[in-house]
Amino acid sequence: MVYQEQIVISTKGNGDMHDLTDQVNQIVKKSGVRVGMVNVFNVGSTAAIGTIEFEPGLQRDLPDILNKLIPPSREYGHEQTWHDGNGHSHLQATWLGSEITVPVRDRRLVSGTWQQIFHLECDIKPRQRQIMVTVYGE
Amino acid sequence: MVYQEQIVISTKGNGDMHDLTDQVNQIVKKSGVRVGMVNVFNVGSTAAIGTIEFEPGLQRDLPDILNKLIPPSREYGHEQTWHDGNGHSHLQATWLGSEITVPVRDRRLVSGTWQQIFHLECDIKPRQRQIMVTVYGE
Amino acid sequence: MVYQEQIVISTKGNGDMHDLTDQVNQIVKKSGVRVGMVNVFNVGSTAAIGTIEFEPGLQRDLPDILNKLIPPSREYGHEQTWHDGNGHSHLQATWLGSEITVPVRDRRLVSGTWQQIFHLECDIKPRQRQIMVTVYGE
């Protein structure tokens, strides 16, 4: 069985994080899948998806470490194509990754109590984001 | 067809690596799936899953580079929530990722001879870890 | 339904990137799957798979940032096992990740207009690469 639904969110620009766990759990419930997995995929190349303990400290720490290791700069080659100042956004998103696949059991995500599915905006301005959620199983 | 089984391991703290390849292959064999894929997911937010050549050198190099780029420190915002000194553990695990999906063919993982599935403990103390393995296919 | 096919490419060594999007879309079309997802997995431990805007600037920026953060060196522990100078290749590939799972809808990848599936060679010499593509869904 496959069930697919889209989540749409509005972000505030670089470093803005959303907790998608409840919405994904609701989609899993609607799908009727008891055991299987669910893939959560950000459509677009300047935002990331993953798991984290979704608490205020780490919501600052994750964007901070990304901006430290892959800093904003006009020196990226990407500037020569687009001149839009978001080369670091692409690199941050690509390195963190655009999707995650999480197991499903008893009609729910199998994730830790302090392990949530996050969406991280890496682009420099607010964006509307489409996130495709695909559940498969029995 | 979906088959799901849990692996439990005991880790020794930050930088401890386990090779899960044989256990995952056994679960694939038990599942009866001939062609498809298998998802290997760490339940919890301070350990990572991925692929690597599982040899002693890289078992040191991977934790070393993580601790170099995302170093232990009391300066992370995460400290203000929990005061437990493992902010870097969360960031290391999130950046490396909590899961991997590997193709299955002829009832076995399709992975390179020198490509194993690893579990990396990023937390600062020994932990018992649940790893959910979900096989899907025909 | 599960459909599996291999892509073979020849790479030019560290930093060489290939856009796999068209080939993966062709395999999705051949599979007959209308809705589901597709897993793209690099067989081997020194190359990476992910999504990026596949344009000339980022094709330089991604290898550059990898070589800056995880630089070539003879100091890695991996050298003591193999003496082949590609410790950084393993670490780069493991950190970026060996696979991606992308949703399928209307017999096509659901990815952004500027979001392509890339293969990145992290090894130091040209390699022939096997990439396993597994489509599953209905």
Multimeric status of the protein = homotrimer
Radius of gyration of chain A, in Å, reads 16 Å
Distance between the termini of chain A: 6 Å
Percent helix range of chain A: 25-40%
Q: Into how many domains do the coordinates of chain A divide?
A: 1
Supply the helix-strand structural class of chain A. Answer: alpha+beta
CATH superfamily of chain A: YjbQ-like
CATH fold-type name of chain A: Jelly Rolls
Provide an overview of this structure:
3 copies of one chain form a homotrimer. Helices cover 29% and strands 37% of the residues of chain A. The radius of gyration of chain A is 16 Å and the shape is elongated. The longest helix of chain A has 14 residues, at 56-69. Chain A has a single domain (7-137), classed as YjbQ-like (Jelly Rolls, Sandwich), CATH 2.60.120. The N and C termini of chain A lie close together (6 Å). Chain A is α+β, with helices and mostly antiparallel strands and 138 residues long. Chain A is built from 4 helices and 8 strands, in the order ββαββαααββββ. In chain A, strands 1-8-3-5-6 form a 5-stranded antiparallel β-sheet, with helices on one face. A 3-stranded antiparallel β-sheet of chain A has the order 2-7-4, with helices on both faces. Chains A and C meet through strand 3, helix 3, helix 4 and strand 8 of A and strand 4, helix 2 and strand 5 of C.
Feature tags:
alpha+beta, Jelly Rolls, homotrimer, elongated, 138 residues, 4 helices, 3-stranded antiparallel sheet, 5-stranded antiparallel sheet
